[in-house]
Amino acid sequence: MSAAGKKAIAAPGYGVVEWISTACRLATDRNDFRRNILVNLGLFAAGVWVARNLSDLDLMSPQPII
Predict the structure, then answer these.
(1) Continuous H helices in 1-66
(2) Between 11 and 25, whose confidence is greater?
(3) Which residues of 55-65 are buried (b: 16+ CB within 10 A; e: fewer)?
(4) What are phi and psi of 23, to 5 degrees?
(5) Has residue 66 got a pLDDT over 70?
(6) Where do the domains of the chain lie?
């Protein structure tokens, strides 16, 4: 395989090390507004995910008699 083929397959510049360094920089950043927005959006997304995945449970339905 040629070098051009390998370069086309590679990710566009964001490796695991860069992702971790960005996360650490965000955690230690002094800009609280941006960090709070990202944390709140993450918590909201997690809540939406939980609500959508648990939406098939009906807690008010009668329980089966065993």
Answers:
(1) 3-9, 16-27, 32-53
(2) 25
(3) eeeeeeeeeee
(4) -65, -40
(5) yes
(6) 13-60
Residues in the chain: 66
Mean pLDDT over all residues of the chain?
74
**Dist CA 65 CA 60 (whole Å):** 15
Under 8 Å between Cβ of 29 and 39: no
Give first-to-last CA distance, the chain, whole Å: 64
Tokens of 41: 């959006």
Reported pTM: 0.41
Model confidence at 13, pLDDT cuts 50, 70, 90, reads low
CB neighbour list of residue 27: distance below 8 Å, 6 or more residues apart = 35
Helical (H) or strand (E) element with 13: none
